[in-house]
Amino acid sequence: MFKKIICVVGARPNFMKMAPLYAELMRSGKFCPIIVHTGQHYDYQMSKVFFEDLSLPEPHYSLESGSGTHAEQTASIMLSFERVILKEKPDLVVVFGDVNSTLACSIASKKISIPVAHVEAGLRSCDMSMPEEINRKITDSISDLLFTPSLDGNKWLLGEGVHPDKIHFVGNIMIDSLVKVLESISSDAEARLLNQHRLVKNKYALITLHRPSNVDEESSLRAIFSVLSEISAEIPVVFPMHPRTRGKMSLYGINPAGGGVLLLDPLGYRQFLMLMRNAQFVLTDSGGIQEETTFLNVPCLTLRKNTERPITISEGTNALVELPEIRDMVHKILSGKWKSGSKPAFWDGKTASRIVSVLSSQSL
Ligand code: UD1
Predict the structure, then answer these.
(1) Are 209 and 297 in contact (CB under 8 A)?
(2) pLDDT of residue 260
(3) Secondary structure letter of residue 351 according to DSSP
(4) Is 256 a residue whose pLDDT tops 90?
(5) Ligand 1 centroid – CA 247 distance (Å)
(6) How far is the CA of 223 from the centre of ligand 1 (A)?
(7) What angle, rounded to 10 degrees, do the helices at 100-111 and 70-88 form?
(8) Mean per-residue pLDDT over the chain, rounded
(9) Which residues does 204 contact at the CB level (< 8 Å), separation at least 6?
């Protein structure tokens, strides 16, 4: 008898974490995986293009929850997801990462006694002003199986009183997708993309910024664009923009035309990986990009006060920066003085198979 497993995705950073597990569950022949897309992200460029780039099938359920306040979004996902699990009666629900869908679906499942597994458990920024930190802590506290990407995750969970039997160090599942997709990209395709944007390999900076702490306030967003414009005098700057950032720019009437910063719409996964692999450095406030740059050994400046992924600093190429420090850091990188990183343990493209081994050993 196949075990029925619901895999929940909702927002852009979930898709590349779910794809390898879905493929491995199918391959095992022991499980029947069902994809539920909550619709937290809904634009083609924020969602569907990832299904195409990751060779995923259409979701079995699309809940179309859309956006709203945190409470509206979380509540709407809980209501519609509960209907799905009451109908499907899965043996397990798997949630990924730290977005509102992760929280909403783990609570809805546990309340009706369906076990939950959390992939990317144990990450902590210790900053409760981040909505993601609230999502991480609550999801971890109610999950039955906690799959950690690095051993700092095990330490946090044990410190919070989680029973050791629930915790499994399996490595970083996002790297499974990254390895697979990069292997499938030809050097011609990469050259074409760089040409299209008039970029030269290892001679441009790639920017992604979307966190409320950076982009929601007008003064902060203007200050960021002023720094980007200065950087662009030294090195071409390319900035694929998250809809939140684009929305705030138009709200505040910020128009950096002529500032030398190439603004793009959000990119698909393949295109973004190509640009990241060939960048001289990345400036970001994303969680996942700190990890991907560590794996690719590309210098990464993270415009945040803290990170839930400290291994990218201790072992990788990442550093936390404040806005006024960025120019100096960029000079350090451009003069070849940046640290070189190493790949953390189990960031090897085999995390999904380790998770399926654990799932096979459970009495679900
Ligand atoms: C969410 C996650 C965050 C993750 C980020 C990556 C939470 C709490 N936050 O933040 O952890 O790093 O995704 O992208 O779950 N929008 C569109 N089109 C879309 C999606 C969103 O226009 O396809 C708009 C929304 O209407 C909203 C804004 O973008 O105005 C932000 O979207 P939202 O879902 O609130 O959170 P993110 O900032 O994307």
Answers:
(1) no
(2) 82
(3) H
(4) no
(5) 11
(6) 22
(7) 40
(8) 97
(9) 235, 236, 237, 238, 278, 279, 280
Task: Identify which of 45, 49, 103, 104 has the alpha carbon closest to the alpha carbon of residue 75.
Answer: 104
Cβ proximity of 225 and 258 under 8 Å: no
Q: Ligand 1: which atom is nearest the Cα of residue 67? A: 26
The answer to whether the predicted template modeling score (pTM) of the entire model surpasses 0.90 is: yes
Ligand 1: lining residues by beta carbon, under 6 Å:
11-13, 40-43, 46-47, 67, 98-100, 131-132, 210, 242-244, 247
Is the Cβ–Cβ distance between 135 and 129 less than 8 Å?
Answer: no
Catalytic residue among 41, 118, 210, 242: 210
62: Cβ–Cβ under 8 A, 6 or more apart, which residues?
Answer: 37, 39
**Is residue 257 scored above 80 in pLDDT?**
no
What is the rounded distance in angstroms from the CA atom of residue 343 to the CA atom of residue 349? 11
Going by alpha carbons, the residue nearest to atom 38 of ligand 1 is 244
Protein residue with its CA nearest to atom 13 in ligand 1: 11
80-103 average pLDDT score: 98
pLDDT for 258 equals 65
Q: Which residues pair with 7 in a beta bridge?
A: 35, 94
Residue 242 a catalytic site member? no
Q: How is residue 355 written in tokens?
A: 């998770």
Q: Which of 16, 41, 209 to mutate to test the pocket of ligand 1 (most atoms within 8 A of CB)?
A: 41
Convert the pLDDT of each residue in 180-189 to its tens digit.
999 999 999 9
State the closest ligand 1 atom to the C-alpha of 43, by its place in the atom list counted from 1. Answer: 23
Q: What type of residue is 98?
A: D
pLDDT digits (tens, 9 = 90+) for 100-113: 999 999 999 999 99
